[in-house]
Fold each of these.
Amino acid sequence: MFNKAVTSTWRTYLKAQQQQLETDYFKHLNAARLLKKHCQLIDHILCNIWLESKINNQATLVAVGGYGRGELYPHSDIDLLFLLPNYIVDGLDSKLEAVISLLWDIGLQVGHSVRTLDECLTEYQADITIQTNLLEARLLTGNQSLYEAFMMASKKLMQPQLFFAEKFKEQDNRHAKFNDTAYNLEPNIKESPGGLRDLHMILWLARSQHLGENWAQLAKAQLISPLELGQIKRHERNLQTLRIRLHYLAKRREDRLLFDFQNELADNLHFVTTPRKRASEQLMQSYFISAKYINLINEIVLKTLEITLRVNKPQIVEINARFESHDNVLHTKTVNVLQKTPNSILDCFLLLQQHPNLTGMSADLIRDLVRVKKLVNQDFRQNPINKTTFLSILSQTNGVNHSLRRMNRFGILGEY
């Protein structure tokens, strides 16, 4: 269907436009602008090739995954769904094969699936990964009615509680691959704890519950505060910038901050070696600050989203005069407990060790701990009660390491 001249023309056009995107990025240094313009470029190419193929409304071309979300990094795969009607269309298979072959021949890294509407819905129910990809589906061209039928049917099949449980388990497994820490020497900007995937996780779960599709909508729904909105955007931009720079530096898809790239990347981002700290160390410190915050906000918002799925009233059990548990999650009895009685700050961590049935802290309690960490000052450190509590945390038979890691994640350990 497509001759060599067509292939050559599109390949030349793609290469020139990608070079222009790179030039434009280093001129403006705007990550969001690059991701958007890259999507627009690929949208333009795909829609025109679809038009040339004369598939028209015989099928539907859908962007899914990161491409569907509108975030396309310089060397990321382009995830596509070729959505077909349930009936057979003569000659359609050969047209689709020609399109897919052309996309590869002109230099696009395409990840594609070809499914009928019924097959899509069957896979949607059976595979959480496919369900996640299709959650971010975006119509490119083709049969709009077929796309709308798919979206309507998939929304009816979504089970938010099951989706939450499966995605939470998936995140736990992903974090375990990186030893449940953001502080690896060669972290993966996308997949490591505190990476971009932790932000995607929040948006997937919020979207599955129809609570918002972007950070501004989540703030409007009061899932995050205006302050958190600003911090999320700032740290997201930092990781997006690092990932874009890595792709350009490696000239391929590369999401790991490998030692081989750290010095050059630090130089490109204008970090300067000082007598006290190398440029590459400053780069990694910048990454770890962002990863730590993203890891924290992921935990806070996921706990909040979990509450929105609750059907029954929580079982409340009193622990002491200041704390209680709601379905085995630690809560303060009243607001501002930590501000009014700073000695309670360390009690939070000790109580989790002393009550093995407690599975963690509530989102509000974590937010309070982050908010009051500056109360852990010189007077706090010299207070005999706090010294005793900290020693009690260290002397417990179980959970010492876990408590210290939690204290570090919330910023309490560093202040103490």
Note: The longest strand covers residues 78-84.
Amino acid sequence: PPPGDLWPPFLSLKQKPLLLVRGETSDLLSAETAARMAERHPDLTEVCVRGTPHAPTLDEPEVELAIDEFLARIDS
């Protein structure tokens, strides 16, 4: 069954920086939903891995760079 409305738990994270890693061809997290997430969260950074389904392995170069930049930003 569907997990229910996930917007309230997502919106509860508004005060926290978020990094969204999404596979371009994900059948679980569409580009439209990711865009809505970015609109609703003031400090969300998205990295989309081209040609990748759900979920990226996190060892893609663009993901490693995004993680490094994200951690450096929240560490400062």
Note: DSSP finds three helices and two strands in the chain.
Amino acid sequence: MDDWINQLSQIALASKNNAPFTLYVVAIFWGVHIVNMLLGMRLNILGIHPRTPFGLIGIPCSPFLHGNFEHIFFNSVPLFILVNLMLMFGLHTFYVVSIGIIL
């Protein structure tokens, strides 16, 4: 039982230490969305467009694009939690997994 409590306290401490970087990652998504809104959603042209060579640009860009405020808000909560959990395995693991997900 004490081992379980010790592991939980280590997870809580790691989450607390990783929170600033996690907030930075979430802020990047919000920043892209705000810029997109200010541009009249013109960045959505960088989304995935099937069967066009230009549409290939959308593969790495589309995870950063969101349709509206609700979309980004409800993606931010799980993003914060999952990024924070992923950072417990280290920054290198976070980068490798993130690039794999984006591609």
Note: The longest helix spans residues 2-38.
Amino acid sequence: MFYSLKILNVQKETPNSISVEFEVPKKIQNHFSFKAGQFLTLKKKISNEDIKRSYSICSTPNSGKFKVVIKQIPNGKFSTYALNNLKIGDFIDVAKPSGNFFLTPQPKTKKSYTLIAAGSGITPIFSILKTILSEEPNSTVKLFYGNKSPELTIFRQEIEKISKIYSKNLT
């Protein structure tokens, strides 16, 4: 089942990617609870064709935000449409969060995590990373994140900021 959600924010993350934040009305918020690492499926009619694509949620469950990153794929109908057309105030159909790749934080635990990502694969990892750091204060994280270039590094500035804030927990 899809719900028509309003776009609250569209932000350029890199030359070929944007983040899109959705407003989830209070009456359906219970349908949109999620765990760090899960994804949303978006649906849009483009050139008279219903196109569906799944994107990992990059916000954290406790943030109250529902945000994904869309990276443009060469000849990708949905990603090209999104980068060129989506704007604040638009509506798009969104399915409930799903997926089995997720973290259930354990606040009293003391674990050592190693997270590995490349390119846009950072999106579920970013949600997991921020969740561990904020909800498992005794745990540590080693993040390995590869990219083609610094300008194509999604969340580069945010990761640098987080690494300073959580310097004793994040390498």
Note: Residues 36 and 103 are 6 Å apart (CA to CA).
